[in-house]
Amino acid sequence: MIGYVTLGTNDLQKSAPFYDALAAELGTKRMMEFDTFIAWGDPGGAAGIGLTKPFDGNAASVGNGVMVALQAKDEAQVQRLYDIALANGGTDEGAPGDRGGGFYAGYFRDPDGNKLNAFVMATPES
């Protein structure tokens, strides 16, 4: 089970509003905050997400093939999260749509270039 994921940032104050807006749409908020680190989520709840300046003091960089997926409640929320991301400094990596097999997702990057998506899986019919 994943407790949380952490992404690097080179400008915490610039990137934090991006995650504040996504968290608000997902019904959560900041749960921890320090000078170099902010975490969003619900203590004891589902996995959270953290944004941090690298501990070693080097510049944050984007991992090729690394992505954080945000679980939405329905396709409309996938669209809202995608729109919120783009309105808060994110960039498009693939507009929301059916990706096959009951997987509906929209892809975007945060202001630091970290890749995320919002998705919903269709419930298999019995």
From TrEMBL:
- Identify the residues that the record assigns to the VOC domain, covering every copy: 1-121
* Stored PROSITE patterns: VOC
Name it.
Answer: Glyoxalase-like domain protein
Per the UniProt record, the lineage of the source organism begins with: Bacteria, Pseudomonadati, Pseudomonadota, Alphaproteobacteria, Sphingomonadales
